[in-house]
Structure formats: C-alpha cells, structure tokens
Amino acid sequence: QVQLVESGGGLVQPGGSLRLSCAASGFSFSSYVMYWFRQAPGKVREFVASIGTVPRITNYADSVKGRFTISRGNVKNTLYLQMNSLKIEDTAVYYCAAESRYSGRGTQVTVSS
Predict the structure, then answer these.
(1) Element containing residue 55 per DSSP (H, E)
(2) How many other C-beta atoms are found inside a 10 Å radius of the C-beta of residue 50?
(3) What are the phi and psi torsion angles at 87 (to 5°)?
(4) How far is CA 61 from CA 1, 8, 69, in A?
(5) From CA 40, how far away is CA 27, in angstroms rounded?
(6) Half-sphere exposure of residue 70, counting CA atoms within 13 Å on the CB side?
(7) Where are the alpha helices (DSSP H) in the chain?
(8) Percentage of the chain modeled with pLDDT above 70
(9) Nearest Cα to 38, choosing from 100, 99, 113, 90?
(10) Per-residue confidence band for 54, with pLDDT thresholds at 50, 70 and 90
C-alpha cells in the first residue's frame, strides 16, 4: 500500500523555522522525483520545491528560494523540507508528492505572531 505521510507542521512566529518530513512507503521512493506543494486558504495549490533522483537536482519557487531547503534520504525513504525565515504568507497546508502519481494528506503550517 502506497503511503506518503507528512509531519512536522505547526504554529511558528515570523522569522522562525520548521522542518517538515514526508515518510514514504509502498513504492520505489528512490526512483521518483519528489515534490513539496502547498495550498493556502482560498488559493490554488502551488509548487514549493522539487528534488531529483540522481543527480539530486533541486528547484524552488521564487517565493521560497534562499529560505527553504529540500532534501531526501533514500535509505529512510523520507523527504524533508527545512523552512527558515518563515513569513506569514508561508501559512498553508504542505503536501509531499511523488511526481504526479502519489500525494500525501498534508501538514498544516501556520506562521503568526
């Protein structure tokens, strides 16, 4: 059974940091380009970051470039998103996805003072 389970979300003040994790199982994690997306209330889901297989080429949305870092651990089948210098506009539900095939249920990130 394919599973993508996000964790690590929460409430943080502006300027703070969070590290999201996405535990993958049931498919060949190392073979897939992995993504983070997010969806804020009333907005469409948007791309945040992606990481390739070999080589692990990364791409970021302009809005998070320089603040967020995507990484993956192919031994633990886990995808990560380190989020620093968080802004109020980063508030959203964050989802991980394996290309266009599999997606998790998301984890809420709220940035508020």
Answers:
(1) none
(2) 18
(3) -120, 160
(4) 31, 20, 11
(5) 28
(6) 26
(7) none
(8) 100
(9) 90
(10) confident
With 0-12 CB in 10 A as exposed, 13-18 as middle and 19+ as buried, what is 82? middle
3-state secondary structure of 90: helix
Supply the pLDDT for residue 55.
83
50 by DSSP, 3-state: which?
strand
Q: Amino acid letter at 109?
A: V
Token reading at 93: 């539900």
What is d(CA 59, CA 82) in angstroms, rounded to the nearest whole number?
14
Tell me if residue 29 falls in helix, strand or coil: helix
Q: Could you identify the residue written with the tokens 């651990």?
A: 73
Confidence at residue 74, expressed as pLDDT on a 0 to 100 scale: 86
Locate 70 and state its tokens: 């995507």
Residues sharing a CB contact under 8 Å with residue 13, sequence separation 6 or more, in sequence order: 86, 111, 112, 113
- Cα Rg for the chain, rounded, in angstroms? 13
Amino acid at 64: V
Q: Which residue has the tokens 């897939």?
A: 32
